[in-house]
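Students often ask why we bother predicting the structure of a whole assembly rather than each chain alone. The short answer is interfaces. A chain on its own may look different once its partners are present, and contacts between molecules only exist in the joint model. In this exercise we take two input lines together and write out one structure for the complete complex. Read the inputs first and try to guess which parts will touch.
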Amino acid sequence: MTAATNSTPKIRATNLHKRFGRKVVLDGLDLDVAVGESVVVIGGSGTGKSVLLKSILGLMEPEEGSIEIDGQPVIGLSTGDREKINRKFGMLFQGGALFDSLKVWENIAFGLIQGGHTDRAKARDIAYAKLADVGLTPDVGELWPAELSGGMQKRVGLARAIATTPEIIFFDEPTTGLDPIMADVINDLIVKCTRELGATTLSITHDMASARKIADRIAMLYNGKIIWQGPTSQIDSSGNEFVDQFIHGRAEGPIRMEVRAP
Amino acid sequence: MNIFQPIGKAFLGFLGAAGRLTLFAVISVSHCVRPPIYPRLIGRQMIEIGYYSLPVVGLTTLFSGMVLALQSYTGFARFSAESAVPNVVVLSMTRELGPVLAGLMVAGRIGAAMAAEIGTMRVTEQIDALTTLSTNPHKYLVAPRLIAGLTMLPLLVLVGDIIGVFGGYLISVYKLGFNPAIYIKNTWQYMESLDVVSGLVKAAVFGFIVALMGCYHGYHSRGGAQGVGAATTNAVVSASILILISNYLITEMFFAK
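Now the answer. The structure tokens for the assembled complex follow.
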């Protein structure tokens, strides 16, 4: 294992390649995320944002390239070692991905009980505290996920993502499918919760309002590569025609939208 | 020349699928015997497979036992061998009909439910969520179902055997005029422990097959509701075929001369 230093990025992806059949999704992607930094990767539908996230999470294996977490290479790890690395992670899925068969509080406490081996009663107390952190009342804890609205499911997903006090939190399209007000509520909660934890975050979205709110740095993914990255304040003056087209949502421009998802 | 191309492609596809299934089974079985074990999940699956399948297995074996008594009575009457009805009922139920009927009914009920549940978890990213929460899906989802299938189907079959023999008894005594005491005596006298044991071994194998196929097809389902539907169908069809094939192989193993 490589010892992490202050200059070691929390997440480093180098020269990632991934293809599905003849479709090249990642084509030599490089991305660093510093400790405590919040990076948002933007890009159109089907550009490989989810593939990037799944590759870092170990849900998918790139054909080429390396991924390091705290300086430790994580591609090809054994199941046990991968589970140890995953204990550093929290993840908010696009659709919430709450477990239907468990109550809301059990969903939030899942990582503590199964992964962290915390006592069930203690995990329940932590779950209710996290529920309050995301602005939900205690009675929600006894409901089933199917009884919640989309916005509430996102909040519960966020509570589950932060319950284990992870070092790195991933957000997959956190505001997709929500009305603008609820989207802003979720963005505020993401900023609040990640600041309180001091966590490093990597998000993927095509919602520019969300990206502007939660990102320290924005990176644009196009054709399997990061074609521009810089501080959020510079996104409007990037001088990159691809970025300009994307952030202004124009149909005309150099970006040709992918029809098929990878 | 070209006719060999699709044959070769299909054969390679079959080998690939067999390899993937074997690998899935080996990984899942290894998680059955390595800690941590989840007693709560195993218990829940045992109730689902054992307790909730009891009515359907009970009804199936009851009526099968009744039909068996009627059919063998009318058939054996042609050569005056009606007295063999108790023996035929008990041997058929314990050796064949009990395990095979219970296996097929449980494949339809439980195999489909497992494939649908795990398939839905796959397409809604719940299985990915398990992995990111440092929980191995094979250990959390598959192993409890395999253990429950392996242990509960023999118990179901044992109960089904008794109900099936009772069905034969009901018809023989109340419709065909057999003496109750003689019927029970003949049933006991000609039944050997190997008849029951072979049926229970079959049941354990069938329970494993049903759970394995349900989990395998659910775990690998793709593409939303249609994919989950296809996984459910494939789970039931493949489990049913494997049950019938393994039934022959186990029968050969126990009874071939």
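Check your guess against this: Chain B has a mean pLDDT of 91.
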